[in-house]
What does this fold into?
Amino acid sequence: VFQLSVPLNFLGSMYRELRQSLLDMETLFNLQKVNVQVKDKPNAPPLRFSKGEIRFENVSFGYRPDRPIIKNLNLTIPAGKKIAIVGPSGCGKSTILRLLFRYYDAQEGRILIDGQDIRDVSLDSLRRAIGVVPQDTPLFNNTILHNIHYGNLAASEDQVFEAARRAHIHDSISGFPDGYNTMVGERGMMISGGEKQRLAVARLILKDPPLLFFDEATSALDTHTEQALLSHINSLVKEKQRTSVFVAHRLRTIYDSDVIIVLKDGNVAELGTHEKLIDRGGLYSELWSAQETLFADVKEDDEENDGK
Ligand code: ATP
It folds into this structure.
């Protein structure tokens, strides 16, 4: 019995490891809704990344061809800048990010990164160049350590801890009974939406890709933590001159962007800096005033409650 159990244990652990890596892949594919119709062209070369300029040329796209979401979009996202995409719900903000990541291909027009049509380069090199913090972060049924480490499996544990510190989540993790070995995911400990978002930022910091996308990435955080994390993300973007695109509802989180793009019905309604757009007195300035009024009301309520 003893003699038999050794190889069986060995096989068991190999099986578990293999199963885990298959599960990782499966989770990632399911959670990121990878579209199998998007494929590499034969012998597609890798993306040659230089400064990180993104261009949309006459791009049209609909999830169903009879219902266009992006309509003949022409847009240049300058390299190394902080860009925000804002606009009413359902206008196609997240769709723009999905097209850039090639979850889907546009039906018309083309998308270029540093002058290369993204359909002509290998998918793997494209996706390696992009880091996304999505609205809802996919977590593996694994430890917190593995979930952050996934950003860059070549990184050391110390680098994982450092990334967690920079994403303002190290202290929370250290406070969990099992620390970095805490199991998360569907079958693990429930962690809050805000912790998930910071975990995703830590994963992104570790991956350190040249293009950064944030899709409502800090919406689940309280104002204080959000400001701290945003200021860290801002310094990262500035220091490394990364092209970064923020999709946001709350304009207070993006008003300092180099360019703000206001999307409406799948096209650019307005574009410029916060000051320019406020002066213009159009859609952005309406959205800003509405949110500021709301913000002032909430603040007043808070202050009244504090006084009691
Ligand atoms: P929000 O601010 O509410 O997140 P958004 O501007 O990011 O919205 P998108 O998520 O880009 O909007 O969606 C644009 C439109 O496409 C919406 O009408 C949405 O219902 C539709 N849509 C999004 N994903 C799919 C999908 N996988 N299949 C079909 N329609 C979709």
About this structure: The beta strands are 54-61, 70-77, 82-86, 108-113, 116-117, 130-133, 211-215, 243-247, 259-264, 267-272.
